[in-house]
Amino acid sequence: MRELNRLGLTSVCDAGGGFQNYPDDYAVISELHQRGELSLRIAYNLFTQNKGGEKADFQRWIGMTRPGSGDDYYKVNGAGEMLVFSAADFEDFLEPRPDLPTSLEPELKEVVTLLAQNRWPFRLHATYEESINRFLNVFEEVNREVPLQGLHWFFDHCETISDRSLERVKALGGGIAIQHRMAFQGEYFVNRYGAATAARTPPVRRMLEMGLPVGAGTDATRVANYNPWNSLYWLVAGKTVGGLSLYPEKNCLSREEALRLYTQGSAWFSRDEEVKGVIKPGQLADLIVLSDDYFSVPEEKIKSLHSVLTLLGGKPVWAEAEFKDHAPPELPVTPDWSPVAKFGGYGAPHFLRSERSVSFSPWASPKVMRRSGVQAEPVPLSQLWGSGCDCFAF
Ligand SMILES: [Zn+2]
């Protein structure tokens, strides 16, 4: 959380993830919330981990909690991004597009009907138009029986969504949460599908022209980096992190448009439009002071912006430079015997930088510290890794 505060984030919308079981794996974050130690507002979606038993998961959770349960710091946002395993069209552009099984339609219909009947907002991971078309067939069928309007349902990603599908999303009252996955996989996408297809992946400009709710994010941490400034750079410059230009000028956003997607735009996706996204009376007192002027720095410098002061509910949760006197206390180091507690930073590289008088070669019989009861003692590295190969990233 502190790292995200450093990058200027005050709220996240969590799409769940593999092996993130509700409620057991949420106990740590719930305890931090109860202790008043969250430095980030979290709206979390419930992601089924139960292939073949997805509906049972959602039935159980509908009986346990409800969307909006919690407070401004920590609340249930709805279901997804995994609703049924048969609808997961993973985004590895090194591989051919996956064809989803025919069990998708009946399984997805059961779950979405259940969610709509209970007025649970939902989100669904969706990469390719071919899958999105099938998802929309299901949603339209459900909508004829249980209206989806007003539910704030949405797709995540939508790299190759067609204009026709955008119209169908709009007609059903949905939104689209976009992320900078193409900044990392753009080269692979172009190799497989060509530059012309890549030119609208996703078609953000078209979404905005149509008046669809659009929120921007990162899809961290498995698919992309969590740094919002990389994502804003991608929206503005239209380039991958490797420097490949993906989009024509008209599909790139102005800096203001990109920032609006990250603030006001994303607030729709956690139903927080009344309290987040704008600095004005009545909204939560979350704001940041940046290391440089986002609107005037050279485009390439957008990627290295960060916050020098982050306020959450009016309280500093990150401060440095001229604001460092307002910084919250250092976080405790766990485990307490970690070298980080003594030397600071992230371990060996910092150690090497800050202790220049010490001659230290990681390749020539290095010594590292190992815990021994309450005392730390130096041991040869080879004893830690046994007699096998000592190759590792240092
Ligand atoms: Zn996803």
TrEMBL record:
UniProt entry tagged with the keyword Hydrolase: yes
Q: Spell out the molecular function terms from Gene Ontology.
A: hydrolase activity, acting on carbon-nitrogen (but not peptide) bonds
Signal peptide limits: none
Record key words, sorted: Hydrolase
Entry keyword Nucleotide-binding: no
A Pfam family annotated for this chain is Amidohydro_3
Spell out the InterPro entries in the cross-references: Amidohydro_3, Metal-dep_hydrolase_composite, Metal_Hydrolase
Ranges where the Amidohydrolase domain occurs: 1-317
Q: Which domain of life is it from?
A: Bacteria
* Gene3D superfamilies tied to this protein: Metal-dependent hydrolases (3.20.20.140), Urease, subunit C, domain 1 (2.30.40.10)
**Coiled-coil region(s) at which residues?**
none
Q: What is this protein called?
A: Amidohydrolase family protein
Please report the organism this UniProt entry assigns to the protein.
Prosthecobacter debontii
